[in-house]
Write a structure and sequence with these properties.
A hairpin with a 5-residue loop joins strand 14 (230-235) and strand 15 (241-246). 24% of the residues lie in helices and 26% in strands. It has helices at 35-46, 78-91, 160-163, 180-189, 212-220, 314-346, 356-362; strands at 4-7, 13-16, 25-31, 51-55, 95-98, 101-106, 117-121, 126-134, 138-141, 156-157, 172-175, 195-198, 224-226, 230-235, 241-246, 251-253, 256-259, 262-265, 277-279, 285-288, 301-303. It is of the alpha/beta class. The chain has 2 domains: 4-139 and 263-362, 3-Layer(bba) Sandwich (FAD/NAD(P)-binding domain); 143-260, FAD/NAD(P)-binding domain, CATH 3.50.50.60.
Length: 365
């Protein structure tokens, strides 16, 4: 089979066959190359597991200037952090492939009943794996307001812990989208004395409403409430936020806007796994439902990071990926031991399950 050339996100290239289709079954495929996926892959590669990371190259935090709240790496640009992570995974023999998964399905178990999966990319390349780690992350859903989306990741923020220090003491407006926005406003009030709460921030067709107790609490903290519906976000000539225009034509000057986004796990290509999903309270999003360490109801499949924990920051997502990677390796160790015991008793062996010397050869893609 002729080799094909694909590009890594870092710009380097490598020669590959069809991602293992002709070379055997790899121990694990990680779908998603963010903090969770890469840290899971790192744990597996350091355990001498053959692992392939498939990443589309569009992380959730790409628009941000820096990653915050990550000890030792405070302020590192998101793409720099991921570049370091990819290099570390490769250092231990892992593979990082740029591509989009269009299908991930069970492929029939081994003779011993060990799970198998087939992952296919949009260009037709495929890889078979014994285990899957889904770390696809999520998409933030913004209110459909004219002029809003262009400011995402800069003047428009969502997380007081990710961006709060950077917008401290600025005139901040909170666009209400539901009950969670009340708590959101109180968190941002910690960062600025000049805070306006737009009670109908999701547009003229939605009224989030505020009861008298909440209004009293806001008043006690000096939070101004605007009840008129929001029509659009106005920008300065140099592309910054100028203010919020209301349906009555008035514009409330603001430099920063905060909004609690809807958060939806990325599920493209994963329908064939039949992974259970769970809704967030208040119709704020949807994510994969998981148990301990990201285990799912589907044997052989784990989920880590924002795809199952939408509120997790980079550090928490990386930690979840590491834990899932360790659990996957432990599961593989059990399967390898079961296969070795069966071979010792009955004189047959599944070569893919025979240990690191065989699995690593099978994983040379």
């Amino acid at each position: 089979m002729p080799a094909t050339t694909f590009e890594y996100e870092s710009g380097a290239t490598a020669e590959s066959d069809e991602l293992g289709e002709s070379g055997g079954t790899v121990d694990a495929v990680v779908i998603g190359g963010g903090a969770a996926g890469l840290n899971g892959a790192l744990m597996l590669a350091r355990s001498r597991r053959s692992v392939v990371v498939v990443d589309g190259g569009t992380p959730r935090n790409a628009p941000a200037d820096g990653v915050h709240g990550l000890l030792g790496l405070e302020g590192v640009p998101p793409m720099d952090l991921l570049g370091r992570g990819r290099d570390e995974v490769r250092r231990y023999g892992g593979r990082v492939v740029v591509g989009h998964v269009v299908s991930a399905v069970p492929a029939g178990p081994s003779a011993e009943g060990d799970p198998r999966f087939k992952v296919t990319l949009s260009d037709g390349r495929a890889v078979r794996a014994r285990r899957l780690l889904v770390a696809t992350g999520l998409r933030d859903v913004l209110p459909d307001l004219p002029g809003l989306a262009q400011h995402w990741g800069h003047g428009l923020v969502h997380c007081p812990y990710c961006h709060g220090w950077e917008v401290r003491d600025e005139p901040v407006g909170v666009l209400a989208v539901g009950p969670a926005s009340v708590h959101h406003a109180l968190l941002f009030r910690q960062l600025t004395d000049d805070l306006v709460y737009f009670a109908r921030g999701a547009g003229p067709d939605q009224d989030t409403g505020l009861d008298e107790e909440t209004r009293a609490r806001f008043a006690a903290r000096g939070i101004r409430v605007v009840d008129a519906p929001v029509a659009a976000v106005e920008s300065t000539r140099d592309g910054r936020i100028a203010g919020v225009r209301l349906v009555d034509g008035q514009t409330v000057a603001r430099r920063v806007l905060a909004v609690a986004t809807g958060m939806r796990a990325r599920t493209e290509g994963l329908a064939g796994l039949n992974l259970p999903m769970q809704d967030l309270p208040g119709a704020m999003g949807r994510h994969f439902a998981t148990g301990v360490a990201g285990a799912t109801q589907v044997p052989g499949v784990w989920v880590a990071g924002n795809a199952t924990d939408p509120a997790a920051q980079v550090g928490a997502s990386a930690a979840a990926g590491a834990l899932a990677g360790a659990r996957i390796n432990a599961d593989l160790v059990t399967a390898d031991t079961d296969a070795a015991l069966a071979a010792a008793r009955y004189g047959s062996v599944d070569r893919v399950s025979a240990g690191p010397s065989v699995t690593r050869r099978a994983g040379r893609l």
